[in-house]
């Protein structure tokens, strides 16, 4: 068993729930059909199984190393990405004119989930390159696109994003990297960039770094940040590679997991950079990439949760241990552990988290397609805004639930799960990064509460609430779903009240107190969002025959009984507006 | 900074809260005083810092290995245990007649916490030996004690416990290891033993394995299990070592963490064993060791949580990043991250978990002293029973909260916490074992609900409730504590009702349904227990001057506002007695 992500479930979500087939009515996707989607997923699945999963453990055990000159990775990484390249996946979502096949983003996302479930580190080279390419597609000049975008879409160049510095992770205001303009129109960059995944390697012909830096004399803070292309090797206008640029590896970070992709401290020493777009607009350009990267992180967390769940499920179905509680006869045979209620609890939780987050990630990806191809500008703008609201949830809540799921996958395996002979301990270690990178979950929670739900006078929140409400209305007249619809309605009302109260408090100037509990808000919003999606799944499963659909209904039942029930508690914590987490005048956090 | 466990906090808990000094009134401890306790803790602290903490990272990076003949460990492990031995710590709690100093168990436990915080793997050699020695002290014959107990108390021999087999972890009923009686009164053992920590090494002169096996012809199931001493080297009656016994290493388990102590699959091949006590009583003897080991596991989880918290606290006090929310000036200096509410939340949670569990573990350890030295047999029996009830909570709930705490310690560090340059990622990996070994937390939850709280017609539960009630009564007339006392009173009532309803349901024969949610019961019971202990700490801190005491009051406030508030929710889940986790006639957990 491959145990990556259930193809059956992918098809259920794509076609029965999200009606992705409808996209083929849009001009951009008119050459596509359910068959082309299936073919693409088949190819992705095969490459994921044959080329990615096969070296996932080796990537963990033999991590990249730096010899002072070059960064070495396992040869299987390059081979896997070559298979990925040959399948045309680097360019898949792009225009025909750029060599792409105009594949819907939601299908590409489903493919990405398979690669991440198989080998999240190797998949990350490709996903970072895709994010980089999207920035250049949107904001690069024609000359820059020719030099740096096309080779990425061909899979010859890879991309990175260089935001953080050793002293500045969450706080981009404090970036110190400087970009001095030169007479020839280029810039010279100096500074240090930290946490650069794929920051150096020998896999691609070249590496295109997208670097945030400040042009001296610009405005202070984030308003003075500009975006630059800094290639590892300079590129002549005709595409030939020139000399090595002043980007050096100062060291590799040695991580707990996610080890197959080198993570670098890069030193920029008079590195030649090309300005992307206008000066001082770098942060807004980079948000294009960050938003996409954040969806990618949520998907990665979900993919690891999903594959961990399938590993745990198979183990629980085959490992025998003990007897049912009512069976006191020591001579009766041991039963598969899936029959023990506590093991079953741990499996159902994983199912609810993994399949719920897969739905969430695909829903978000479909919004990207909607934004791109909606029939009216208003509909496109609505999709964009809803995606803005959901991005911190996709990133933050999938990664919180993902780590819970992987923790349970280990627990189902008992002592075996704690050993490197099995796969689940690596998933757990790999997944622990997803709550941290691309903005910690604390940052995501603040982004959601302090920026997103209040955007455009609450329009973002209202769009989300409308979607939840639509599912409630579609369910309330069905006898089996009415209790869920009513519970969700109540939860939605509560969430709206909480949101209003917190935003009012902030508007009155008590910003820290209003937002001190933002993590609980993420928990509330994430839980209601997943309950909504589970009700959608239940709605589409109801009345259909077979264990698969029954499983969907039971997972929804679990979610409403054991997750959505937290809403009043979370709301109470938020509405209280206490000062437990506020920094006091005289701190008492001491150990002496 | 050593950042192990706060000495100030240890002293607060030992003397101000638990009044451990009162033990010096007991005959057994009359030579002791607060000064001898302090001296012992000073010695332990010094050895922990100088000999244990110093190789904790090396133990993780260079794990034990097996050359086909011998198991190799880092030389620092042996050196650390030699320092431990020379300080007399192996025998400390034992009688003068056995070479001990009759140190109270609670003080020895506090010392143990320091060693575990410094280096949980190296400390485990000593703790396993202590547990083994206690079984022999209670159940070994005088000859066995001379041959196997005394050398362990001298630190010359180390001990193990051999319960699990590859096919039988949680289910000891199914053990297959056989012990054939011989004409000379010894037995020959054959079988495989799995997950044996310290199962082989060259650190001690000899290893004393305590092995569960079945004597052919005995009763089926756990009633046919006997306990045997199986030394690595046979021991002559005069104490000289004889030839190597038939215990061989079949392989080492390679774990995610906790790597410094080898974990072995042992093969018994006509191994010579001596029966301990009577035949077929092995499990009850082994429970002596298991109970102690379970308290040790809880303590280990707490120790890792505590040291992780101190690491995160120091990091948060020194790392600067960003500005307060009301400060929009990018030119103002960055603040230490402890000032950001979400970071502060993560620190307060760690403090509440680590210091709360330290209290719980020391409370349990003090019950061991109480059982041993109480003025009346009734009081001793009460202490024993209360300890029985608390053991699964100490093990299960400390390890659940411990892993949460370490997860947060990483999160406070951001990306740095995910690298091996810092210590917290190792604590997290090490701590993940504690929810699994010595009975998974699922087993602990079942033990608590299905066995312990109903013991002796609910006497165990009532003893626990009496203790909680005592704290409530002592607090309710104090203005500042009254709201806590009332909340705890309500939570206690709820817990009693839930317990009664579940035990009634089980008595009516619906055992699986009654106990299906036992993990939620552990969560409920653990949360109320910690709230009780936090109220105790608050009671003893109230009215005293200084940040340390203020911190105790604030942590209690956090616990009552953000943890005890879960009680109604958990109670509702339990009272509902739904069938969500029961194995259905036709399973629907499928991915196809």
UniProtKB/TrEMBL annotation, chains A, B:
The lineage of its organism: Bacteria, Thermotogati, Deinococcota, Deinococci, Thermales. This is Acyl-CoA dehydrogenase. Residues 465-580 form the Acetyl-CoA dehydrogenase-like C-terminal domain. Transmembrane segments: none annotated. Coiled coil: none annotated. Belongs to the acyl-CoA dehydrogenase family. InterPro entries: Acyl-CoA_dh-like_C_dom, Acyl-CoA_Oxase/DH_mid-dom, Acyl-CoA_Oxase/DH_mid-dom_sf, AcylCo_DH-like_C, AcylCo_DH/oxidase_C, AcylCoA_DH/ox_N, AcylCoA_DH/ox_N_sf, AcylCoA_DH/oxidase_NM_dom_sf. Residues 161-270 form the Acyl-CoA oxidase/dehydrogenase middle domain. Residues 49-155 form the Acyl-CoA dehydrogenase/oxidase N-terminal domain. Keywords: FAD, Flavoprotein, Oxidoreductase. Its cofactor is FAD. Residues 281-450 form the Acyl-CoA dehydrogenase/oxidase C-terminal domain. Pfam families: Acyl-CoA_dh_1, Acyl-CoA_dh_C, Acyl-CoA_dh_M, Acyl-CoA_dh_N. The keyword Flavoprotein applies.
């Amino acid at each position: 068993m491959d145990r990556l992500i259930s193809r059956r479930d992918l098809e259920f979500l794509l076609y029965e729930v999200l009606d992705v087939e409808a996209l083929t009515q849009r001009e951009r996707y008119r050459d596509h059909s359910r068959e082309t989607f299936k073919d693409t997923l088949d190819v992705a699945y095969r490459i994921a199984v044959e080329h990615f999963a096969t070296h996932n453990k080796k990537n963990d055990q033999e991590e990249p190393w730096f010899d002072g000159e070059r960064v070495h990775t396992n040869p299987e990484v390059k081979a896997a990405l070559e298979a990925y390249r040959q399948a045309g996946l680097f360019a898949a979502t792009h225009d025909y004119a750029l060599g792409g096949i105009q594949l819907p983003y939601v299908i590409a996302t489903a493919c990405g989930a398979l690669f991440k479930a198989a080998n999240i580190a190797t998949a990350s080279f490709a996903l970072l390159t895709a994010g980089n390419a999207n920035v250049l597609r949107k904001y690069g000049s024609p000359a820059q696109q020719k030099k740096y975008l096309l080779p990425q879409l061909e899979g010859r160049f890879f991309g990175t994003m260089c935001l953080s510095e050793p002293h500045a992770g969450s706080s981009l205001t404090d970036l110190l990297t400087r970009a001095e303009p030169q007479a020839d129109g280029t810039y010279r960059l100096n500074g240090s960039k930290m946490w650069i995944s794929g920051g150096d390697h020998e896999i691609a012909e070249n590496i295109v770094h997208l670097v945030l830096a400040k042009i001296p004399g610009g405005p202070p803070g984030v308003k003075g940040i500009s975006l630059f292309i800094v290639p590892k090797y300079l590129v002549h206008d005709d595409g030939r590679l020139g000399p090595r640029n002043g980007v050096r590896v100062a060291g590799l970070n040695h991580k707990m997991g996610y080890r197959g992709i080198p993570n670098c401290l890069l030193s920029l020493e008079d590195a030649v950079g090309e300005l992307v777009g206008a000066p001082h607009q770098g942060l807004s350009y980079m948000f294009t990439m960050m938003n996409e990267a954040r969806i990618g992180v949520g998907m990665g967390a979900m993919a690891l949760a999903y594959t961990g769940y399938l590993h745990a499920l198979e183990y629980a179905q085959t490992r025998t241990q003990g007897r049912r509680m009512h069976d006191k006869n020591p001579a009766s045979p041991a039963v598969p552990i899936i029959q023990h209620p506590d093991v079953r609890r741990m499996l159902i939780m994983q199912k609810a988290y993994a399949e719920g987050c897969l739905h969430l990630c695909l829903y978000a990806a479909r919004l990207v397609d909607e934004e791109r191809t909606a029939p009216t500008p208003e509909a496109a703008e609505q999709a964009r805004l809803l995606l803005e609201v959901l991005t911190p949830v996709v990133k933050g809540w999938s990664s919180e639930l993902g780590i819970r799921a992987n923790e349970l996958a280990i627990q189902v395996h008992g002592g075996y799960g704690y050993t490197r002979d099995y796969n689940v301990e690596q998933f757990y270690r790999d997944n622990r990064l997803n709550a941290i990178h691309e903005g910690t979950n604390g940052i995501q929670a603040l982004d959601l509460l302090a920026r997103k739900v209040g955007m455009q006078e609450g329009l973002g929140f209202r769009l989300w609430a409308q979607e939840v409400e639509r599912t409630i209305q579609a369910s309330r007249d069905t006898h089996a779903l009415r209790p869920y619809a009513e519970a969700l309605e109540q939860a939605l009302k509560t969430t709206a009240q909480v949101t209003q109260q917190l935003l009012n408090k902030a508007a009155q100037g008590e910003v820290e107190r209003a937002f001190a509990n933002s993590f609980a808000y993420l928990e509330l919003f994430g839980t209601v969002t997943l309950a909504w999606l589970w009700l959608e799944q239940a709605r589409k499963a109801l009345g259909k025959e077979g264990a698969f659909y029954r499983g969907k209904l039971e997972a929804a039942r679990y979610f409403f009984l054991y997750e959505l029930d937290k809403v009043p508690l979370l709301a109470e914590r938020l509405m209280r507006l206490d000062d437990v987490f506020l920094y006091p005048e005289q701190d008492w956090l001491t150990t002496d």
